[in-house]
Every structure is written in structure tokens, then in C-alpha cells.
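Morning F.,

Quick status update on the modeling queue. The single chain you submitted on Monday has been processed. Sequence for confirmation:
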Amino acid sequence: MLKAVRIVPQARARNVERLGRYNRTLQPGLSFVIPYIDRVYPAIDLREQVVSFQPQPVITEDNLVVEIDTVLYFQVTDPRAAAYEIASFLQAVEQLTVTTLRNVVGSMDLESTLTSRDTINSQLRGVLDEATGKWGLRVNRVEIKAIDPPSTIKEAMEKQMRAERDKRAAILSAEGQRQSQILTAEGDKQASVLRAEGNRAAEILKAEGQSRAIDQVFQAVHRNDPDPKLLAYQYLQMLPQLAQGPGNTFWVIPSEVTSALKSVSTAFTEALPKSAATRETTPVDTVAEEATEDAARAAEAAAQAVADAAEPGPVTRNSRANHTGEVVS
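C-alpha cells below.
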């Protein structure tokens, strides 16, 4: 009685032969068979199965032997065909995978093989699904797990990759140096431009200051209406400074010196007129004393300058007078 009852687990199927011929396929659940007449075969797994095949040597188009390891995902859709159409569907799938893989990879070179895994997977799946359909199988996916080229090719590829990395590093270093030099040059250029603009602004301000100073002095002189005696006095004060140059070997005394001395002498022997400022703040006696002392100092400095210029020098004998003054050697 126990042999007449069969329990099939979920996602399993069992084929039944009656008197040597296929009778039916037992579905998951409780089923009854006739003992000694019906023969129940082992259960067939209907779930998706994963099979990893051993690495297989494959020759590429450029005559290089590579070992390819593949993983196959398939599912049994027809238990009867899987049991009666092929003796061992697992072994058949493995051999068909190796044959198809050799055909696909044989038409590609090594570089394409290493970089075109998706293309190889899709081609393998199409061929296997079409071939295994009559066996009651459905190939869901084929994945290439590893592609191992020869050791010599690996060494050459490592050298090539190392050279490519060194090349990229050198290019990046050169680009960095170029950018650094460009930025430095631009910074120097901007600094030079700003420095030049600052110097120009400083010169402009300096010139404007000198112009305003000269204008104020000019306006002050003309506003106070100086006479020739004051100008002669100022002229005599500048003579010692003209003779103090370290490179002077001879000194040209202008002809206006005599006139200036006469004007100064006349100015300090006569009574000085009072200006508007002097009339209000400075007594006449104080002004006369200060003018007398300044005239004495100016006369002494002029005499000393004439004496210094009169000393003999290396170019005295070749000195000549001109129409502007006398040459004292």
C-alpha cells in the first residue's frame, strides 16, 4: 500500500513509466501509482540552477590561448523532455557552452575579448537558449567569471599599463607646471602694471604739488611786489651754493654779480621802505639790524666764493670768458 502513494515536494517533478512507457509526470503534492506496474523516476528540480564550469582553453583570433571560466543559469521547463530528449542535460549544457564559447571568442582578438564581456554573454545566451529549447531547458543567463591570458601576456599588459600611468603622471605634472608658470607670469604682470600705475600716480601728485608750490610762491612774490634790491639779495645768497660742487674745477662769475652787490649796498645804506606786513608787526630798527647782518653774511659768502674760484686748477689756463660774465681761474 505504501508503494502506491507518492508525495512530490514543491518545485519538483517525477516522471512515471507504465510498463516501460512514459505515462505521466507527477506534480507537487500527493499522487497514487500502481505498484509493480508504474515505475516512478527520481525527482527533477524545476528551480533555476547555477552551474559553474571548469576553465576552458580558448584560442582568440590573434592566436593567443586564454582560459575562460563561465557560469550558467538555467531552468527545467519540461521534465519529460529533459528526461527523454537528452541522456544528461547538464553534461550537454556544459559541452554546448564550451563549443559556443570557442566559436564566439575565436572571432575576436585578445583586447576585444577582455573588453567585450557583455557581447560574449549575449551571444552565448542566444545560442544556448535556442539549442536547449528542445531539451526542456531555458537558459536565463550566461556570465563569464574570469578570462586568464598567458603569463607573458599578463607581464606585457602590466608593463603597458605602468607605462600609460607614468605617461599620464608626466602629462599631469607638465600641465601643473605650465599652469603654475602662467599664473606666476600673470601675477608678475599685474604687479608690474599696478606698480607702474602707482609710480605714475605718485609722479602726477608730486608734479601737482610742485606746481601748486611754485604757483603759491609766484603769487606771493607778485602780491608783495618785491623790488630789484630784494631779488639781488636772494641772488647773492645762491652764489655760495653754486660753488660748493665737488666736481667744479672753474667757476664762471656772471656779470650780474657787480650789479647785485651795488644794489645790496645801496639798499642797506638807504632807508628801507616799509611793507604792509612790516608796517604792522616789525619796528624799523629791528628790520634794519637784521638786513645789515644778512647783507654782511651775503657779502662775506660771495667774497669767499670768489676767492675759492680764483684758486689755480687743472683747467684754469684753458678757461675763456664768454659774453655772460667773467671767468675767474
